[in-house]
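Just curious: can you write a single protein's sequence together with how it folds?
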Amino acid sequence: MGHLRRPRSRAALLGRRRPLTAPASAGPLVRLLTDRFAGTVTDLWTDEDTVEVQVPGDQIVFTLRTLRDDPDFAFFFLADAAAVDYGVGNRFEVVYHLHSDRHPTWLRVRVRVNRENPVTPSVTSLWEGAMFHEREMYDMMGIVFEGNRDLRRIYMSPDYRSFPQRKDFLLPDDAADSPSAGNRPLERPETWDLTRLGDAAAHRDEPGGPL
């Protein structure tokens, strides 16, 4: 476990004076990961209740399937999946959080996604519930999940052509890139009629007014 790392600043804030090694509760999972996925998982990191690894994009489905089905791991529950943007000129990442009743620590699995060609395999064949996580990442970040049978926008209008959670997203320029100018009037402040808020508050105070 010589490559094991933990952030020094975080350790100092919590008053830890012991060497920065894997917490005792994470030790068995760390050993399993390094034994079973030698050469595949990298950047292994631990905290008190989480173990984190990075996996190559072409190995993500195989790795997650093993983590789910192998009884020594038994990470049957995909708690959530989310995307991270490291900024203009840098990569995206998709991050999966897994839970197992065999291990006292959460497992966070990260996979890098090329910003210029943001494509990564879908994991809906493993967890049907990942459908909505992947649709959200597609809608907000523009990441395409190959194999997702229903990959379409989940928040924005179908003709919307920008990705609001990317760090290079600019408003109103990106919103105006869509024929419908985004979801009106939420993203077009010049269309907001703020007098309606005052009128609604006044009527609420009247006898028999709306609650």
Q: What stands out?
A: The chain has one domain: 21-169. The chain is about 25% helix and 20% strand. The helical segments are 8-13, 27-36, 60-69, 130-141, 195-205. Residues 130-141 form the longest helix (12 residues).
